[in-house]
Amino acid sequence: IRQRRDExxxxxxxxxxxxxxxxxxxxxxxSVDLLAFYYHLRRRQPSVGVQGFVKSACAVQSxxxxxxxxxxxSNAFDVYCDVRRRVQRRVDVALKRDASNxxxxxxxxxxxxxxxxxxxxxxxxxxxVDGCDSQKRDKxxxxxxxxxxxxxxxxxxxxVNRFHGEVRSHAAxxxxxxxxxxxxxxxxxxxxxxxxxxxxDDRCGSNWKAANTKELPPASKEAFEQTGVFxxxxxxxxxxxxxxxxxxxxxxxxxxxxxxxxxxxxxxxQALGYDINCVLETTVRNSSLGNKASELRxxxxxxxxxxxxxxxxxxxKYHPLYRPGFGLEDLSTCERFFSSLNGTARNIRxxxxxxxxxxxDLHVDQLNDDRYASLGVYPTL
Length: 381
Known about the structure:
Layout: H1 9-15, E1 18-20, E2 29-31, H2 32-44, H3 50-60, H4 68-94, H5 102-106, H6 109-112, E3 125-138, H7 157-161, H8 166-177, E4 186-188, E5 194-196, H9 218-223, E6 224-234, E7 239-246, H10 252-266, E8 270-273, H11 277-285, H12 290-295, E9 299-301, H13 304-307, H14 312-318, H15 333-341, H16 345-348, H17 353-373
Parallel strand pairs: 3-8, 8-9
Antiparallel strand pairs: 1-2, 3-6, 4-5, 6-7
């Protein structure tokens, strides 16, 4: 490799189409073509790990395999992914798509773009939300890796934690200011979801695990940092944003953070599909989002896949089949998404926080590209 006097060794290697495995005095480098192949393979088949891929590459090139190659290849792959993200950010700036919420609002053109004079639909957009606990990460893994992954997909932890104990605190404030007014009281469950009190409840909150989530066992809290993800997708299957579970299960704060984001970013006449929306509607009403959700006419719907297991009265109120404007939409989009995202689980259990986010971001970005390409195909899978 030719290197000029004032040229960094890593720059010289990149000019030759190679990415080093170590930043200082590298002795081994990987070709950009090899890294590009693994990049596209990992995006489409996230269960393919580094070890198997490196062993196969060594076998093809008759190169002796040693276990240290895995760490070197992982480092080079991180550099390659970072370069691609930096290039994409420059492209986004040139196209004026660099706003933090651009992909959320316009990533699906079928949902986001409106023609001049187009009749406004009700609901204006449909969103599906749900949680999945397969994406766990060992708390003790990758503690030396202090890098922070920048992703437009994930909502910040601070924003989500603002809704912790939201129903309880907001109900207490309303009781102190409206003590003389008769109203329906709400009881907060352990996970933060609100259930109506002093009236007959014909809804199904008590029948669903997500609405009765207990705290994680102490052993799980000690073992895991991230314990899953909460996803919001449009009706066409394009991911709008994700929320990470941090040492907890699916809680009301995740759903409330999703509702807050939907109301803030998308405005009036939004429809929200969730497996326990019969409970979430009461939770939203008894939170600080209640007035805003009512003013913006947020519609709560239980997706068709789960709704058939709800009580009859609940089905008549929340099933999309009986709601005008929903057509044949089932809003069971999250289940199809999680069936693919679960492929990341085996490779992120013992990853660092940076690589946990990177692996999910890579696969979700590819899924969004695939859904974008299939928008003209009916039905969209």
